[in-house]
User: What shape does this take?
Amino acid sequence: MILESQMIIIFGGTGDLTRRKLLPSLYHLLKKKQLTDCTPIVCLGRQKITRESFLKNLTIDKFIEDSDDAVVQDLLGRIEYLSFDVLTGSPPEFYAGIEAIRQKYKCAANSLIYLALPTTVFQKTAELVGVLLDETCWQRVVFEKPFGEDVVSARKLNESIMSVLREDQIFRVDHYLGKELVQNILTLRFANEIFASTWHEQIIDHIQITVSETLGVEKRAGYYDRSGAVRDMVQNHLLQLLSFVAMEPPRAGTADALRDAAAAVIGHLRPVEKKDVVLGQYGSGFVGNSPVVGYTAEDGVSDESVTETYVALRTYVDAPRWQGVPFYLRTGKRLKHRYADIRLVFKHKTSPLGTIPDEPNMIIIRIQPDEGIALTFNVRKPGDSGNTESVLMDFCHHCHFGPNTPEAYESILRNVMLGDHSIFPRWDWIEASWKYIDGLRRIVSPPGNYTAGSEGPVEADTLLAQDGRKWLNDNSSQQIIPLHLG
Ligand code: BG6
Assistant: This one.
């Protein structure tokens, strides 16, 4: 499907997100011939550089696998660079720059305006672009996460942008919702009776949601040290995963029905108590074979920093469907493996044959890498009367659909271009998630230490051990014999 002509305006054009994610995603849309010739891309940055040196610094090839040179040239040919500082620049200068590009391309006036900027300058930028809005065509403004730093700042920000934009023009990004396997959670649940009929407290014992990273803080200490894992990952990505797993069937297939169902989940979260949370901060160690420094020795982080780089959390959704079912969430940096998955662990019952099956059944949604969905079940061990073994039915996404599944940011951009809000958090969801997170942050103690390259702090194991359970790590499904269904 060819998308409508539009001008794409990216604030934060010289930043990492633009180079690593946004421009490569636009490359893929171009390669699929979904962008018209009348789709210029304007990158704005504070640096006073020429278009030529901006393009040279992009080194875009590094971020696109097996790039097609003709498509890269097409992409670069559409990029314009405007030097502009949102805080100190003169608005008429910005409007004149945009107008000159519009005249050059003689395009429709639709605009996709992407704010790849810190949350602290959203308000000022929204006021600046609000003036561009024109009722004869569409203007959509995309806000990168995080949206605020707590409920008070998020409310203030929301009020200020709502005074210049309408809700249908606002797209608040959580890139996890652009991931293929995250969007698949709803299909898995609601398009399959086999799963729909088991998705509740009578069958499910507990649910584990893990986002494990091997990377450290990289070059983002300025932002990360103020934020920490709770605000950087839990407030948005992990709570969105939880919302998709726990929501009631939406009353219709519309974006608003979906977002009503997601917001209801956050409204039902039981406030966290101190005993439900474990925070950690990585010390030095090895990731793979490489030695890495501890968090406080990272560039830009103070020796005294008590920012958490790991969080494990037990929470409950107080709705009839999930009575008594704990949701265990965890995420951290500098851990042993990079992966994200969701595991629904079934109740473990004695079989009428008199044996306790080897392992409880489990549904595993592998968000990354090796995207797929797996189901474990027990089979009889040949010749071994009464004994069972747990095996895996494994749907491998790329084996079936091929390797060209859109990256999260490609789906994000495409949905904005289509004006489809289904994968964008609505304000009521964001407000409720901040309220929950603020409550959590009020009660936590400073983080304990964990070794880089480990599975996280030992206290996180204790959190589950108290309930007679254990974390199921990335490799636990590989110990089960896989039956590949491709
Ligand atoms: C971002 C966080 O939102 O998500 C980063 O700010 C984190 O700290 C990243 O590394 C993880 O995203 P992904 O897609 O690599 O799992």
Remarks:
- The mean pLDDT is 92.
- DSSP finds 14 helices and 17 strands in the chain.
- The pocket of 6-O-phosphono-beta-D-glucopyranose is lined by residues 145, 213, 232, 340 (CB under 6 Å).
- The two ends are 28 Å apart (CA to CA).
